Amino acid sequence: MSTEDVLCRLSETLASRRNADPEKSYTARLFARGPDSILKKIGEESAELIMAAKDGERANIVHESADLIYHMVALLAFHGIGAGEVLAELRRREGVSGIDEKKSRTVK
Length: 108
What we know:
Elements: H1 3-16, H2 26-33, H3 35-55, H4 58-78, H5 83-93, H6 98-104
């Protein structure tokens, strides 16, 4: 089982919770509360990951990383974006200098 498989399955599962009962599904509750609720969780999980990394506790870093990834994928699902789209973008960037990749982006 690849990492891509796991992320795509998670993405599909979270997307399927869009119309689920918020009383029975944490993800449905996040969706019902709207994007600001999801963004707040991403901020909280990012801060928790930073603190875990600062403390250097491997198990906490793994746990907080998983929490952050979950909430990032929830945000994608909220906007109708599948993990596959992000993975395709990462594949596109593979082997390209970060400096060159940033230069290639157009200003919006």
